[in-house]
Amino acid sequence: MSFIGGYSNQQFQIPNPTGLNPNGTFAVAGQTGYPSESLNERQRETTGYAIASLLHAADRWTLQTSLFARYSTLTYRPDVVGELLYNGMAQFAAKRDLAFGLQTEGVFHLNDSHTLRGGVIVQNERATSQTTTYVFATDAAGAPINDVPVPIADNGGKTQWTYSAYLQDEWKLASDLTLNYGLRADRYDGYRAEQQLSRG
């Protein structure tokens, strides 16, 4: 048996340009100036994963089964006032992704000439996105009608499934010549549905 795991936590302060000021197109509660050195935009990224495996070997065959999990996040926190004054919009974003899966692979030595290999992978993944975007209400020409930003929320998520299976034969034709051939089938159900059969 074996276990592998890891975790990372990274936090970033977005670098600021220097010597800049908004061009005056936008205002927030009467404020139009904002030195670029004062911008405070931050981003955090985390990733964690774990893999637990069981390997068993016998006289003619070897089998390994693994359970795995992965979790990742990305969170962006804007400088709301500063980004509104420079860009006319500011967006808070939080992305989350959680995946679980099972992988089983085996090798069977059929005889001196043929070695069979096969495996199955099944993975479930849940991705979510939460954003809040601050913008200005505009007139028909696209000009802001006031200096009060309006928040617009856009939240969603999707569950995805991935299935894969393969079977391969390693055929030893001679001491210095080996032929590998097999089939692989893949199917994905999530933001779209696709499947493929590959031969090699």
Describe the structure.
The chain has 200 residues and is mainly beta. 4% of the residues lie in helices and 66% in strands. It has one helix at residues 80-87, and strands at residues 2-13, 42-57, 61-77, 89-109, 114-135, 150-174, 177-189, 193-199. The chain has an 8-stranded antiparallel sheet. The longest helix is centred in the middle third of the chain and has 8 residues, at 80-87. The chain starts with a strand and ends with a strand. The mean pLDDT is 95.
Give the secondary structure arrangement, pairings included.
Layout: E1 2-13, E2 42-57, E3 61-77, H1 80-87, E4 89-109, E5 114-135, E6 150-174, E7 177-189, E8 193-199
Antiparallel strand pairs: 1-2, 2-3, 3-4, 4-5, 5-6, 6-7, 7-8
Helix count equals 1
Mean pLDDT, to the nearest integer, reads 95
User: What is the N-to-C order of secondary-structure elements (H for helix, E for strand)?
Assistant: EEEHEEEEE
C-alpha termini separation: 32 Å
Helix content: under 10%
Q: Structural class of the secondary structure composition?
A: mainly beta
Radius of gyration: 27 Å
Roughly what fraction of the amino acids lie in strands? over 45%
> Low-confidence parts, pLDDT < 50 over ≥5 residues?
none
What general outline do the C-alpha atoms trace? elongated
Query: What about the largest sheet?
Result: 8 strands, antiparallel
Topology, number of strands: 8
Strand order of the largest sheet: 1-2-3-4-5-6-7-8
